[in-house]
Amino acid sequence: MSAADAGRSAVLAALSVKTAVKLEDLAESVRSGRTTNGDYLDMSRLLSELAALLRDRCTGYVPPRAVGPKQVEQ
C-alpha cells in the first residue's frame, strides 16, 4: 500500500467513525425529542462528505468477473 493510499484510508476511517458517533447522537436526540433542523442539516452534510469520499475511492474499482459453471468447463 502506498503512502497516498494509507493516507486516504486513514481519512476514510476517521470520517466513518465521526459519522457513526454523530449518527448515534442524532438518534438519541430523536428518541428524546430534542432534535433540531440544524441537527439534521449537520448530519446531511456529514453523510454527503462521506458519500463523496466513498464515490471517489470507488471510481477505480473493478469488481471481479463472475465465472459461471459453463465458463469453467471450456
Task: Outline the structure in words.
This protein is an all-alpha fold and 74 residues long. It has one domain. 77% of the residues lie in helices and 0% in strands. The chain is built from 3 helices and no strands. The longest helix is centred in the first third of the chain and has 30 residues, at 3-32.
Number of helices: 3
Oligomeric state of the chains present here: single chain
Please provide the ordered H/E string of secondary-structure elements: HHH
- The total beta strand count reads 0
Helix/strand-derived category reads mainly alpha
Query: How many domains, as an integer?
Result: 1
- Helical content (DSSP H or I, runs of 4+): over 70%
The proportion of residues in beta strands is: under 5%
What's the Cα radius of gyration?
19 Å
Distance between the termini: 36 Å
What low-confidence regions span 5 or more consecutive residues with pLDDT below 50? none
Which key terms come to mind for this protein?
single chain; 74 residues; mainly alpha; 3 helices; elongated
Give a summary of the structure in a few sentences.
By secondary structure, the protein is mainly alpha-helical.
List the helices and strands and how they pair.
Blueprint: H1 3-32, H2 37-58, H3 69-73
